[in-house]
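tool_call predict_complex ligand=ribose-5-phosphate
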Amino acid sequence: MPEPDKEGKQFHQDIPMSKEGFFLKGCNSLDWGMKNRLARIFNPRSGRTVMLAVDHGYFQGPTTGLERIDLNIVPIAPYADTLMLTRGILRSTLPPSYNKGIVLRASGGPSILKELSDEYLALDMEDALRLNASALAVQVFIGGEYETRSVNNMTRLVDMGMRYGMPVLAVTAVGKDMNRDARYFRLACRMCAELGAAYVKTYYIPRGFDTVTASCPVPIVMAGGKKIPELDALTMAYNAIQEGASGVDMGRNIFQSATPVAMLKAVGKVVHEDMPPREAYEFFRETANQER
Ligand code: R5P
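tool_result ok
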């Protein structure tokens, strides 16, 4: 039996207990576990994140730069805040010693050869918990052929996530023929947030992106898109952050760069330190030269 404790005296009656709000927009009413998972994705100091998306294989197979994730991605993963990937790649290829945020792809079905909006949920919550995921990502095809089902995939995942403290990232997927303007993205992002997504991934648009972030009550991370020159990608990330994004989720603009670590570090400067794009590009070039 331990000796009975003599009650301490350090009650600090003069110091009120901290009642700080949570650092992420719109997330203060979430439960502790959910917030703790989000704090593994978003850096609590800057309130932002650099996510590295490598989940492309779930619908388009071994994408350029992702042919060998063990060789091309595992070594660069520690330079991002979070990895976005499938459970197949996680189990087969990512070392369990990886200790940063993990966002698991949770929807899927059609390949690039078919109608992409024809998705179902593709991951059970129990497996996501077993894999220690920090959040689950689901595509939402607003205006797409299977719009309602994709929204239903998201809301079912949100309900399961609420039960277990797992945040859901809604990814606004845009069909080839759809108009990528602020009106569309305001609609898509707001629907995702209203229906329970903890945060939303969406594309940057040069006009009106600030109205997309302003009208979405939860954090938005900017999607990367196809490979563009590094300066352009850094400029896009900078503009998105300055216009209210809480981070980026970039894939090809990182892993298809000739020097992906330099690019990740430069994006980190833009996201976490508000470094302007020209300066970030100079930083990228210097870092790239050291890496070569
Ligand atoms: C997009 O919907 C998927 O999640 C992609 O596989 C990935 O996130 C796209 O990344 P990026 O367009 O930056 O290469």
